[in-house]
Write the structure tokens for this entry.
Amino acid sequence: MTGPVAETRLLQRSINRRCHLVGALLALAAVIVIGRAVQLQVFNQAFLNEQAAARHLRVERLSAHRGTITDRNGEPLAVSTPVDSVWVTPRDLVAAPDYIRPLAVALGLDPESLITRLTRNVDKEFMYLKRHMNPADAARIAQQGIPGVRLLREYRRYYPAGEVTGHLIGFTDIDDRGQEGLELAFDHHLRGQAGSKRVLKDRLGQVVEDIESIEPPRPGRNTIASIDLRLQYLAYREMKAAVHRSNAGSGSAVIIDVDTGEVLAMVNQPSYNPNDRSQFAAYRYRNRAITDIFEPGSSFKPLIIAAALESGRYQPDSEVDTAPGYVRVGAKTIEDSTNLGRIDLATVLARSSNVGATKIAMSLEPATLWSVLSGFGLGRTSASGFPGESAGLLSHYQNWRPISQATLAYGYGLSVTPLQLVQAYAVLAAGGLQRPVSLLAVNQPPIARRVVRRDTADALMAMLEIVVSPKGTGQRAAVSGYRVAGKTGTTRKFAGGGYSEDRYTAVFAGVVPASNPRLAAVIVIDEPGTGEYYGGHVAAPVFAQVMAGALRILAIPPDQVDELRDGSVTVAVNRK
């Protein structure tokens, strides 16, 4: 069959075949799609969940709270306050460049510098933009919905007493790790352990839901320092005034509890404020009372007398002939300001006789002298555990020459820290017993070690009371109503291969109340610049002011009442 009808039938058959083919293809595609859907949703469900989790589930760090440091009475010395740090995923922010400049302005950053940092770290997942912001300010940044920008809760250290306790407490770095002082010494105790949690985030990176806690954060443990903040303020005020008054280069003061070995106050000048990081410089924040050494001068003589009494060659009433007012040791001539003649041991201390002390020291066996001095803790660090503590310098007696033993008698040729010196005086005050120095509060007095006999310590205390009487060099250290025992010291500073003629260190070390000792203290004024440089003139009055306040604060009763209105004699409490 030909013609139009045949052509129409052929065309219809072609269309039908094409329709069937298309239908078959569509049916096949539908089967494939359905099969793939079944495969993914039934057989590969775990895989899909993993992929979703990888895109929306995140593990976030939970910062741990650092332990608090308080004084012995619970007053805060170092606390942690919550802050927020702003961070970003660089590639997310780079993909939205219109947000960069407004964000930089809001954070107080230079826009060009921020752009440079972002491009350099574009392959990283995490980059800090600004650390330790006020939470309210940080929240305003987060609320702007800037791509990639997040907040991280952290803690910043705050020191309520500021510069008053700066040298002792120290500070932490921006990551809350101890860097100086007690913050460093007990960082393992104070530092907490960060935790983590799994959270669900949306496409903008905002937390939608907390899914689970992986590990809870463990806060650091609180620490109780040994200091009494009231005494610390008192000592700081008086030391600051003294350094200013004498135009000195620096100064230090340490107060120790005789019965426990606890440091009740420790201050230095110049100081620094640990809340202000712009003040962080080594010369400002080093704790001079523990790290700096000096030659103690005549404040060392009581330890020489203690060694003499321990040797058995001397008794408290023994005498030494200082005539004609000088003594030669090798090529060196050691002199007193006047010829004191024949004097007893108490006068050697009261008049601070270099000749008397030298003759006593030279009469002792070097091994005996060294053993007693070493027993006081000289030449080694204390048990304080403070970072950077100096051991001082006390050379072994086998290295001594005659001149070494002679100058040692009046406090030259060896070096101590203020902490070592006050610990030595605390030994005398405690009846010859030494307790470990502690910068942490103790629950009960630690076991003591005997350094010298009780009668030796008692004899020294009686002699040191005379030093603070009108007969001695330390009369300006007297505290009204209390018996005071102590010793002055004045040393020339070593400089340029010899001892300077115009640079001095003034020292006073003492104990109160002498009848029943509770506190031992050392005052060191370095390089006073007003012309007055003797320990009795510069350091002793500071001791008197500090101790008068400390005795009042601690409610320690007077042990001496002079010149009562009824004319009665001095009333004194017998020493325990």
Q: What stands out?
A: The longest helix spans residues 4-43. Residues 197 and 214 are 5 Å apart (CA to CA).
